[in-house]
Structure formats: structure tokens, C-alpha cells
Amino acid sequence: MTFSGTWKVDHSDNYEKFMEQMGINLVKRKLAAHDNLKITLEQTGNTFHVKEVSAFRTLELDFTLGVTFEYSLADGTELSGAWVMEGEMLKGSFTRKDNGKVLTTTRQIVGDELVQSYSYEGVDAKRIFKRS
């Protein structure tokens, strides 16, 4: 299965509560809830090129499955971690540099949607993307 394509956020589930648990302030949470995020994924074997475009920033990064890399969230939170493939699901485990706590993220194609799930300190959330 390939994750390649351009995906635009359609809706979110428990995303604001997740951001609150991450320590993101109220103003940034309200703005992020309406960020119109678009993700373009290009998968070639075990390597990925990702472009994220939102109301706040444009970010491009490359990663290889199983190889640790550095990443910053839109609010500036710095993380270090890696993506791996578990069956047909991408699973990322990222450690926050400021407090050592782990953020787990998964991406999977469900029907014609990209479902991106987050788990941090007991709070789970999802963002559902449609092909654009």
C-alpha cells in the first residue's frame, strides 16, 4: 500500500483536548483547530517526502522508515523519533525534547481517507483527511 497523494484535513475528533494535553495554549489551540492542513506524501519504498501546508507554516521533510530524525511541531515543540511500518499502518514514536514524554502517531488509509491518530499522556485524537 502506498500513502502517496495529497490529503486535506476534513474533520478532527478530540483534537483540541489532545493539544491541551500537549501544553498548547488556548489561542494556538483555537487557531490549529481551523488550520486547513494539507499533507502531500510521496512514498518510494521505505523513504517518504512530506510537505505540510497550513495557515501557519509550510514544512517539507524527508524520512526513511526506522531511521530517527528531528521534527518541530507548528507550536515549536521539538521532537525526535522515527516512523515504522506495522502491516499497512505507519506508526511514529516521537520523544519530546523538553520533557522526555512520548507522542505516538499513526497514519493509515481507511477507504478513501487518511486517518492520522495521536496519543499523548492518555489522550487520544484523530484527524481525518480526504484526497484533494
Outline:
With 132 residues, the chain is mainly beta. The protein is 11% helix and 58% strand. A hairpin with a 2-residue loop joins strand 8 (102-110) and strand 9 (113-120).
| Sheet/helix structural class | mainly beta
| CATH secondary-structure class | Mainly Beta
Strand content: over 45%
> In which order are the strands of the major sheet placed?
4-3-2-1-10-9-8-7-6-5
Number of helices: 2
Oligomer: single chain
Look at the structure and give the mean pLDDT.
94
Shape: globular
CATH architecture: Beta Barrel
H-E string: EHHEEEEEEEEE
Which ranges are low-confidence, i.e. pLDDT below 50, for 5 or more consecutive residues? none
Name a few traits of the molecule.
single chain, 132 residues, mainly beta, Lipocalin, ten-stranded antiparallel sheet, 2 helices, 11% helix, globular
Q: What does this entry look like structurally?
A:
It is a single chain. The protein is mainly β and 132 residues long. The chain is built from two helices and ten strands. The chain has helices at 15-22, 26-32; strands at 5-13, 38-44, 47-53, 58-64, 69-72, 78-86, 89-96, 102-110, 113-120, 123-131. The protein has a ten-stranded antiparallel β-sheet. Strand 7 and strand 8 form a beta hairpin.
Topology:
Elements lengths: L4 E9 L1 H8 L3 H7 L5 E7 L2 E7 L4 E7 L4 E4 L5 E9 L2 E8 L5 E9 L2 E8 L2 E9 L1
